Amino acid sequence: MVTPGVRKGVRSESPQPADAVYVQLHHELIAGDLLPQQRLVEADLCSRLHTSRGTVRAVLLRLEHEGLVVREPYRGAHVRVIDEREAVEITEVRAVLETLAARHAAMMATEDDLAAIRAIHAEMRPLLKNGDLLAYSDANRRLHARIVEASRHATAQRLLSELKAQLVRYQYRTVLVPGRPQQSWAEHTALVDAIGHRDPDRAAAAMMAHLSGVVTALHAAAGRDADPASGFG
Amino acid sequence: MVTPGVRKGVRSESPQPADAVYVQLHHELIAGDLLPQQRLVEADLCSRLHTSRGTVRAVLLRLEHEGLVVREPYRGAHVRVIDEREAVEITEVRAVLETLAARHAAMMATEDDLAAIRAIHAEMRPLLKNGDLLAYSDANRRLHARIVEASRHATAQRLLSELKAQLVRYQYRTVLVPGRPQQSWAEHTALVDAIGHRDPDRAAAAMMAHLSGVVTALHAAAGRDADPASGFG
DNA sequence: GAGTTACAGATTGTTGACAATTACGTATAC
DNA sequence: GTATACGTAATTGTCAACAATCTGTAACTC
After folding, report:
1. What is the pLDDT of residues B219-229, one digit of tens each?
2. Closest C-alpha to B61, from A157, A60, A43
3. Could you state, in order of their start, the residue ranges of all structural domains in chain B?
4. Does 3.40.50.620 match the CATH number of domain A17-79?
5. Partner-chain contact B92 A153, CB within 8 Å
6. pTM of the full predicted structure?
7. Which bases of strand D have any atom within 7 Å of the beta carbon of a protein residue?
8. Buried b / exposed e across B197-216, counting CB within 10 Å, b at 16+?
9. CATH fold of A84-224, please?
10. Nearest-CA distance from B211 to chain A in Å?
């Protein structure tokens, strides 16, 4: 039969209304539409997102576990603020996980992986020369994501995506430190080269060196402009 | 007034029925009372744990995020089985996180921390000599937990506790590999010594060496007895 | 007889109402 | 005038009913 009919074992891609609510709230959190420490009252979210409290609750539970909101018993949920100390902690954990990923990428990467990684890296140089820091920062993000994907390390990948979401507020800080983008590009070059040569130890060392630089830059950025988030709370 | 009366800002430790359900189910999962791949039907859990579906649902969501159960849309939840490949992945991540923790412990540990760590380590030697492998394995667990605590690294600590829960089924395997406990004790000695001497680099190296040994032992254990979990699925 | 279609049972996803708890404003005692 | 006790409003935690979806069985077509 050609008619749509019955698809038996098709895993029918159920719409799952809760997912739409999650995507929306997650986006607002990531995009920064919601202020830090802002209260998230379940009833408000219901009317705003056109759904029921049960659904909102499930989504808030998920976001809590992802570290994007905090919930206290009978006191509700609010947007989680990540202070500089915690941002450094998260960056440290990111560093060791991405180092592990780089090591595995050097062992597991396919030719397609390598081509994609080299393409992103090549794309970054003109952006750096033109001083397009936003585009550079975005390419940087994609390069790291592609390396993690090439590692085929599902556990590291899952944890890294969660940690990354928590750091969005600090995402564009390090690239603003004078001289940092140039150093970053040099470090990336060593990293991509090591992965291309299938050298796990050198890839791991390069990634670790690179992310040590990020931690240093993060400290520098935090020192320059007083953190606006920690001022009121 | 002296009567109990109203305690204003006391954060009154609300009983939170959902927590009791979580503790119970979490325990059953960890203790292995529930078989791998076993279905967790919400209605069954309700009558067994004397609560409502809303509560059970919230708990299942949380357990899913912790990686202890899997939920598929409209198909329900079941106990997650972790195959050997994933156990190795998790152990690798544990290794790099505990290495980070050891480095910080060497920098941050108080005298109380050091005393506690040395006490646990001293406690392990007679257990090893007497061949009490279960007690040794438990002391080993406590030693690692205490070091992580001493690191004062909340992010690493949180992720490690989740990863650890996922590995309970493999917990006692490595200690059964011949010669492994003796090697383990030697590695621990170097680790405790490095932390005691406030030497972050040496502590990190010792922890990494130790956990590399664990990964090797895990492979050996998996090779010896074919994994019973992966046979039927 | 093999394959497909319609139906029934079981299970999950969602919704709305009720109970428990907290926070704030007001009155009162000293 | 300050601090404490009470009452009310707001908000979350829990519960039970309804709708949507999936799985397995039996009848039907060719």
Report:
1. 777 665 433 33
2. A60
3. 17-79, 84-227
4. no
5. yes
6. 0.86
7. 4-7, 11-17, 20-23
8. eebbebbbbbbbebbebbbe
9. Four Helix Bundle (Hemerythrin (Met), subunit A) (1.20.120)
10. 14
